[in-house]
Structure prediction request, 69 residues.
Amino acid sequence: MKEVTLKIPDNKFRFFMELVKSLGFVQVASESDSEEEMVANITQGFKEMELYKEGKMKGTPLKDFLNEL
Prediction:
């Protein structure tokens, strides 16, 4: 089996993925997040960390977190 890496414009990505997934002979390994989504996720993480430090949010014990993986 061969593997291909493609760069697709953000505005065409959803359409492209629907097209590729409709082909019976293609396996989609994973969809990576866009840079904007990664920045948004990191920003959200920092906000949650601040809420935890202020006592406004409860954290998850490391053992429980690792058991979920």
In short: The chain has a mean pLDDT of 85.
